[in-house]
Amino acid sequence: MPLRLVKLYTRPDCHLCDEAREGLQALRADGVNFELEEIDIESDEALLRRYLERIPVIELDGRVVAELGLDLDGLRARLDTVST
How many domains does the chain have? Predict the structure, then answer.
């Protein structure tokens, strides 16, 4: 089964983004397997307009599952379910 894809939309000097990144890294350290892609919204004008007031934004398999922070338990539960 392929790894689930988690995308973390961030920007430089964002303390909430740093906290979300650390939380995702902690999940991986606990043995939760997923692919992590970090995207700097400042690299694309459309992403900047879309996510500026909402970061960090976390997507799981293309669906937004968190904004403005990370719910570790909620994301862990979603990662533990089989993707449909």
Answer: 1
Mutual orientation of helices 72-80 and 15-29 as an angle, nearest 10°?
Answer: 40
User: 9-46 pLDDT, tens per residue?
Assistant: 999 999 999 999 999 999 999 989 999 999 999 999 99
Q: What's the one-letter identity of residue 54?
A: R
Q: What is the CATH number of the domain that holds 52?
A: 3.40.30.10
Look up the pTM and report it.
0.89
Q: Which domain covers residue 51, as residue numbers?
A: 5-80
- Between β-strands 35-40 and 5-10, what pairing exists: parallel, antiparallel or unpaired? parallel
Q: Which residue has the tokens 């909402």?
A: 54
